[in-house]
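hiii so um. not sure if this is the right channel but i have a protein structure encoded as tokens and i wanna go backwards to a sequence. like what aa goes where. can anyone help
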């Protein structure tokens, strides 16, 4: 991973690392595939996590740990979407809005998880130089991916909230390409949110008796 951690080029005075650039390009592709409800979003996301794990390992242990969890959730998402294939009219997974109970559970998990991870980062300062925002992004990413795995439209809202903190934090950490990509994530999130929102209404329509499936 030494060659991947070398500098690729400089952009607007920011040093762009190969690992940062390649990993986030895969992450961007994974988000686009998620928008299209392609099951390949998960292996691509796993690969992005693997590359970024190599980028962070050794000097930003907390960020490396986040990528390890991302890879585990990507494996869970692959399993969930394999089970859910063919549920919608076009042969992909069907999407829906979460119930109020599910929303409450995700918000509670995000809040409790952020506090727990931030306290862990504060107890071990080598894990993160900025515990609270790093914990927020860490836990928010996992919650977003979980919602995506379950086909919930709220997945996009969670990603948008992560982006609001992720952009400045990545620039501050010296991962400029991650910051630029998070800006593009924001645009994709808005388009994906609209698409899944409309799709959820279509997938929720009852099938009339005698009508073709």
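sure thing!! here u go:
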């Amino acid at each position: 991973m030494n060659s991947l951690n070398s500098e690729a080029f400089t952009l607007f005075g920011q040093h762009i690392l190969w690992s940062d650039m390649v990993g986030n390009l895969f992450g961007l592709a994974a988000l686009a595939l998620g928008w299209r409800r392609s099951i390949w979003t998960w292996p691509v996301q796993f690969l992005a996590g693997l590359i970024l794990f190599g980028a962070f390992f050794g000097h930003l242990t907390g960020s490396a740990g986040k990528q390890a969890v991302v890879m585990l959730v990507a494996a869970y998402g692959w399993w969930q979407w394999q089970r859910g294939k063919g549920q919608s009219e076009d042969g992909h997974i069907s999407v829906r809005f979460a119930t109020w109970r599910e929303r409450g559970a995700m918000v509670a998990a995000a809040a409790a998880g952020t506090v727990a991870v931030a306290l862990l980062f504060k107890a071990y300062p080598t894990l993160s130089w900025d515990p609270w925002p790093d914990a927020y992004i860490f836990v928010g990413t996992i919650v977003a991916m979980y919602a995506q795995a379950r086909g919930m439209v709220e997945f996009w809202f969670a990603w948008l909230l992560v982006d609001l903190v992720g952009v400045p934090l990545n620039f501050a950490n010296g991962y400029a390409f991650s910051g630029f990509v998070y800006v593009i994530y924001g645009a994709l999130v808005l388009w994906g949110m609209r698409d899944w929102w409309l799709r959820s209404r279509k997938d929720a329509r009852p099938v009339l008796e005698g009508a073709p499936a």
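oh and The beta strands are 7-11, 14-17.
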